[in-house]
Amino acid sequence: MKNCNFFLALLFWGFITNAQNKTDNPVDYVNTLMGTQSVHSLSNGNTYPAIARPWGMNFWSPQTGKMGDGWMYTYTAEKIRGFKQTHQPSPWINDYGQFSIMPVTGKLVYKEDDRASWFSHKSEITKPHYYSVYLADFDITTEMTATERAAHFQITFPKNDQSSIVVDAFDKGSYIKIIPSENKIIGYTTRNSGGVPDNFKNYFVLVFDKAFETKYTWNENGLAKDQLEMKANHSGAVVGFKTNKGEKINVRVASSFISFEQAEQNLNAELKNRPFENVLAESKTVWNKTLGKVKAEGGTEEQINTFYSCLYRTVCFPQKLYEVDSNGKIVHYSPYNGKIQDGYMYGGTGFWDTFRALYPLLNLVYPSINKEMQEALINDYKEGGFLPEWSSPGLRDCMVGNNSASVVAEAYLKGLRGYDINTLYEALQHGANNEGPNATGRKGVEYYNTLGYVPYDVKINENAARTLEYAYDDFAIWKLAKALNRPASEIAQYEKRMMNYKNLFNPEFNLMSGRDKDGSFTKNFNPFKWGDAFTEGNSWHYSWSVFHDIQGLINLMGGEKAFTAKLDEVFSLPPTFDDSYYGGVIHEIREMQIMNMGQYAHGNQPIQHMIYLYNYAGQPWKTQYWSREVMNRLYKPTPDGYCGDEDNGQTSAWYIFSSMGFYPVCPASDEYVLGAPLFKKITVTLENGKQIVINADKNSAENKYVQELKWNQKVYDKNYINHFELQKGAELDFNMVNIPNEKRGTSKTSYPYSYSTQKK
């Protein structure tokens, strides 16, 4: 019996130790396949497993889709065609700077369909820092790990007289050269999806640790044996070896947007001749340090896995597009003018999505990275003439709004310093008063600045959405203008414009609608109609887009009772829709329809903050209820784990904030609106060394309501918390119960910021 007790004690100690070790290694919780079970007609995330470093310049992914297919990896696929270097932020935006490698055995195959191999998820390991898969058709195991601009492959071959590695530089113009004396292949790819100058190239270099026995280049017309150089529309190379059973061939790969020489520099600086295991260990350490800034404890395994899978997505985009030259100088290829220039450059994000929660998360947890991003925005403006609204790598014509204003203003207003904010303010003014190329500036700006809205009947699509977003953007500029002590007349101009949201309020429906140039509201208005006056949504989704003045919206709707009834109606209405604007059901519509939450369309961004608006009208317990419902029902750490496009960290950032118990409804203010935490404990370690500790030890599936909140042991009755107070370090103790407390947070003195009540 004593021996049995001792054995049980050892088992218990081992369980505790393993749990602690896993907690210390948050990367182990990440499922990079979350969201990969997606198709064109239904997005469960539209993600791919990015093997990378946080915000790294180059990502790598197994490629199941064909060349040029935005759905490069789908969970339901049966074959892998290659391992692809990628910069793709979204399948809808697609990729640039892409090429792939693929090991094969036996018959010499190089075309993507011929070289494709069956694989199984049962023989696949996928983590942010490591990927491994068994290629069944070739009896090969491929492993890879990555740095910011390089990757290290370790490929285990069987005994074979013809083991080969195919390098595919893709079509649309590419070049490849084999250098046998150095066991090296160099080349470039030009394939892109827009947003680049004519001279765009991604230069790559591969170094092998085994001499080539056979050498081929190839193009559309076939293989060319011992021809060491190929320039064509679609070029590639195949190098071959004799291998023994279990023999490992290492391939070190790096690339550059600048030159072959810089690609070599990136390779030597980040990989050198280090063993695979060393690079892998370093990458794991980097991921653990980055993800470890937020420590979640006291949830189910599913919740912890979801949390860190989401946190992983929030630190992927935008990507670093800058490089470090041989003199240690930061340089970049400009996707705007095609020149090599000094300084930072980032790309791969759409501010329409990410201004809402992703950038607020960076400002709270990773501000030094966002400082680099702000410096990069200065270069965007100087080189491109406007701030980007969607970059990949340069200006892309996608989405609406002028939300760079929020991204720039919020960073400065939340304390980031050490960069040229005056140039960025100049860029905001330029964007706010001009219409630029490729979704930059403001489409319909002359109408907006004179009438106070973009009219419905002047052939400018999604006009109501533009008006509402411009109004919030003007608020962001107003706040920044005041902080920078700009002239009073200038400040007053933006203060006036930010109230333009009122011009679209249609009292007949108590919702926002399009408005004609003559001032009349759109005839035959249908609040369930998607698109048309709105962007990827309908009036039920966009009517809440008054981030800076919810009290003003409450007043328009007839007071708190009418307002909360309208919020309730979002969930109680059936998922009715009118898709006539699109001529068919777009995936965002389908995702709303099937979630069984009425008109609430969490799979797209415009409504994601709406749950938190109950706090502005004295019913915070409804925020607590619905935020928990969304977290539990719409997020899972599985291939179908999102309820729509993940969108470069935005949908994930919603989950991270909501798990912590608060959300940045109005990013350009200094407040977060309270919900209720998901875990028993979350610890956020700030860059200044302070910690935010969020305790909710009675938290459970039933205990989803806040009975009482204490801030540093003192009872706290507000429905919001302040960014700068959190920066001092804070302990928030939530007393969680299973019934709503309908007295806490009901006083107007508890309500979050609205311009109409605070005017500051």
From TrEMBL:
<dbReference type="Pfam" id="PF07971">
    <property type="entry name" value="Glyco_hydro_92"/>
</dbReference>
<dbReference type="GO" id="GO:0030246">
    <property type="term" value="F:carbohydrate binding"/>
</dbReference>
<dbReference type="InterPro" id="IPR014718">
    <property type="entry name" value="GH-type_carb-bd"/>
</dbReference>
<dbReference type="GO" id="GO:0000224">
    <property type="term" value="F:peptide-N4-(N-acetyl-beta-glucosaminyl)asparagine amidase activity"/>
</dbReference>
<dbReference type="GO" id="GO:0005829">
    <property type="term" value="C:cytosol"/>
</dbReference>
<dbReference type="GO" id="GO:0005975">
    <property type="term" value="P:carbohydrate metabolic process"/>
</dbReference>
<feature type="domain" description="Glycosyl hydrolase family 92">
    <location>
        <begin position="262"/>
        <end position="737"/>
    </location>
</feature>
<dbReference type="InterPro" id="IPR050883">
    <property type="entry name" value="PNGase"/>
</dbReference>
<dbReference type="InterPro" id="IPR012939">
    <property type="entry name" value="Glyco_hydro_92"/>
</dbReference>
<dbReference type="InterPro" id="IPR008928">
    <property type="entry name" value="6-hairpin_glycosidase_sf"/>
</dbReference>
<protein>
    <submittedName>
        <fullName>Alpha-mannosidase</fullName>
    </submittedName>
</protein>
<dbReference type="InterPro" id="IPR041371">
    <property type="entry name" value="GH92_N"/>
</dbReference>
<keyword id="KW-0732">Signal</keyword>
<dbReference type="InterPro" id="IPR005887">
    <property type="entry name" value="GH92_a_mannosidase_put"/>
</dbReference>
<keyword id="KW-0106">Calcium</keyword>
<dbReference type="GO" id="GO:0006516">
    <property type="term" value="P:glycoprotein catabolic process"/>
</dbReference>
<dbReference type="Pfam" id="PF17678">
    <property type="entry name" value="Glyco_hydro_92N"/>
</dbReference>
<comment type="subunit">
    <text>Monomer.</text>
</comment>
<feature type="signal peptide">
    <location>
        <begin position="1"/>
        <end position="19"/>
    </location>
</feature>
<feature type="domain" description="Glycosyl hydrolase family 92 N-terminal">
    <location>
        <begin position="29"/>
        <end position="256"/>
    </location>
</feature>
